[in-house]
Amino acid sequence: MASSRDRQRKLARAKLDRQMARRAARVRRRRQIQAGVGAALILALIVVGSAWALGAFDSEPKENTAAEEVCLWTPQDGTANTNLKDVGTPETTGLPTDGTRAMTVTTNQGAPITAELDLATAPCAAASIAHLASRSFYDNTKCHEITAEGALRCGDPSGTGLGGPTYSFYNENVPDAPAPSPSASPTGKRQPAYPKGTVAMISSPPGANGSQFLLFFKDYDPDEPTYPIIGKVTGGLDVLEKIGKLPTVDNGAGAKVKPQTDVVLQSLTVGEPTTGAPAASPSGAATPPPSPNAG
Fold first, then answer.
1. How distant, in Å, are the alpha carbons of 141, 184, 265 from that of 272?
2. Which of 74, 148, 170, 236 is the most buried (most CB within 10 A)?
3. What pLDDT was estimated at residue 190?
4. Residue bearing the bigger pLDDT, 14 or 144
């Protein structure tokens, strides 16, 4: 009997040893797995931290797929001002902002007057005039004033100074009052704000530009310029100067500015944008100086 009990104890002891060995093996595997997971987690944290430091998780700038608006056209009430004419509005996007556009003004007073519209400093004025020209807005209208400032005023089909399209736009390139420049001439005379040959917008009230523009046939140098410069005459300055010498009569409002002989704007056309070198100014047509207020 003793021998049988001893054998049972040995078997039980051997079984316990095997259980303990398996348990120890499981503990070692668990620790190995935990150590591996910990090491992997630490490595992952290092990688993520490095990527974050290098900006890998910075949000990518979204591409602006919407076309950038170049000009804003403010609606005007054609029922409140019956001198306004609705011909739609120009585009607000995709407008050229570099180079020039050729403008040709044909009147009943001689050869056409040509000009360059500056797209860099007055893109909205150029876009507006081009739009209106494409709608024959200017055709067979009268240039209703020869102004005291020395400019021919055109672009109002009503001839009242209050006409235009049913939209307006802001000033773009009003020059600063020029400062005296001793190097400009031996007498130190400053360059005028509006040299002869300047093309500028005019509106009533100022800053609500529409269709009306000025063609200067002589220098004009006010203390506080108000007309935005949009371009310069490149041809036909002699015709413009001849028009400037026409006699004027009362315009019905007490101002002697209406040409005694009608100056009919038979047609106005605007060419496609060009980015080449600007055409040379005609003799006597000074290039308008750049303005820090451009645009």
1. 23, 35, 21
2. 236
3. 78
4. 144
